[in-house]
Design goal:
212 residues; 3 helices; 60% helix; three-stranded antiparallel beta sheet; four-stranded mixed beta sheet
Length: 212
């Protein structure tokens, strides 16, 4: 009886050991299979992520370099702008200085007649009328005549020196085509007329046009 029990116990023990050994072998095989599977599946993914990371790092470095270059260009442009602003300020001061020293000149006063025509008076700085235009049908024609006065007033050959019926000197300013651009007042002497011509030469270049 005891011998039978001993044999049974040995048989059970052997079976338990066999089962444990088989489980251990199965576990090892499962671990190895899982390791190879993970390596075959996840390793390419990891390598892809590492490649993406490297690419992103390269882009960051490139952008930093470009940003540095842009900062350098911005600094250069800022310096250039400052230099130009200083030059503008200098020119502005020169203009102000020249303007303060400039000889004052008169103006063209444009008027409309009761009949709807337009004409102008060239006035000296003291307000005296030194040249009066003929009547023009439109303001545009009047402005064209003013431009002609500016163009030809410095040319002495464009002045027609005349004597009125009551023996008073006066002059006309004409265009090269012979058109009368403006007529002076009557003077008491030839010297007064020449002074009037000199005044038209001086004030006729004015760019000031007002409506009166």
């Amino acid at each position: 009886m005891n011998q039978l029990f001993l044999q049974l116990a040995q048989s059970v023990t052997g079976n338990v050991i066999t089962i444990v050994a088989l489980d251990l072998v199965a576990a090892i095989i499962g671990f190895v299979v899982a390791w190879f599977y993970a390596r075959s599946v996840y390793t390419p993914v990891i390598k892809g992520l590492e490649a993406d990371k490297t690419n992103l790092n390269n882009q960051v470095v490139k952008l930093k370099n470009e940003f540095g270059n842009l900062n350098e260009k911005v600094n250069k442009l800022s310096g250039k702008i400052t230099e130009l602003e200083e030059q503008i300020s200098e020119k502005d001061n020169e203009i102000k200085n020249l303007s303060s020293k400039a000889i004052p000149i008169g103006k063209f006063a444009v008027s409309t007649s009761r009949g709807g025509g337009n004409y102008f008076n060239l006035k000296a700085t003291n307000g005296q009328v030194i040249l009066t235009s003929v009547m023009y049908a439109s303001l545009a024609e009047c402005n064209v005549a003013i431009e002609s006065v500016r163009e030809y007033c410095a040319d002495d050959s464009r002045y027609e020196r005349k004597i009125s019926a009551d023996n008073k000197p006066y002059f006309n300013l004409t265009s090269p085509a012979g058109q009368v651009l403006g007529k002076s007042e009557m003077y008491e002497s030839s010297a007064g007329m020449e002074n009037g011509i000199a005044s038209v030469k001086k004030n006729g270049i004015s760019t000031i046009v007002v409506e009166e």
